[in-house]
Amino acid sequence: MIFVHRVINYGRDYNMFTEDKGAIWAHMASDTSDEELIAFGRRIGLKASWLQRAGTEYAHFDITRHKVEQAQHAGARLVSVKDFARYAVQARREAMRATKNQT
């Protein structure tokens, strides 16, 4: 399953060339695999090269409010930041552990 959390204002945008007052982002992750996440991301216009921390339980895309809405319409589950860590990261960690134990 794909999870997104509600957008967060991460504070001051460090790009001195923009007048944007803050960086407002959310994260999108899969509870199973990078492949699932990349395939879903492509459906809403994300490039595979934008995936961060690939191959770890923390693999995710940084997405804007608009992409959160697109992800929801495409079937992603919207959760709180706290639940995002619990559902996406913890489940992914367990899936990776199970795969490792099978080899």
Structural features, described:
By secondary structure, this protein is an alpha+beta fold. The protein has one domain (2-102). The protein is built from 3 helices and 5 strands. It has helices at 34-43, 65-74, 81-102, and strands at 2-5, 8-9, 24-30, 61-63, 77-79. Strands 1, 2, 3, 4 and 5 form a 5-stranded mixed β-sheet that branches. The radius of gyration is 14 Å and the shape is globular. The model is unreliable at 13-19 (pLDDT under 50).
Quick recap of the structure?
This protein has 103 residues and is of the alpha+beta class. The chain has helices spanning 34-43, 65-74, 81-102, and strands at residues 2-5, 8-9, 24-30, 61-63, 77-79. It has one domain (2-102).
Q: What class do helices, strands and sheet pairing give?
A: alpha+beta
Distance between the termini: 24 Å
DSSP helix count? Answer: 3
Query: Ranges with pLDDT <50 over ≥5 residues?
Result: 13-19
Query: Describe the biggest sheet?
Result: 5 strands, mixed
Mean pLDDT: 84
β-strand number: 5
- Beta-strand share of residues: 15-25%
- How many domains, as an integer? 1
The helix content, as a percent range, equals: 40-55%
Work out the radius of gyration. 14 Å
Basic shape: globular
Order of helices and strands: EEEHEHEH
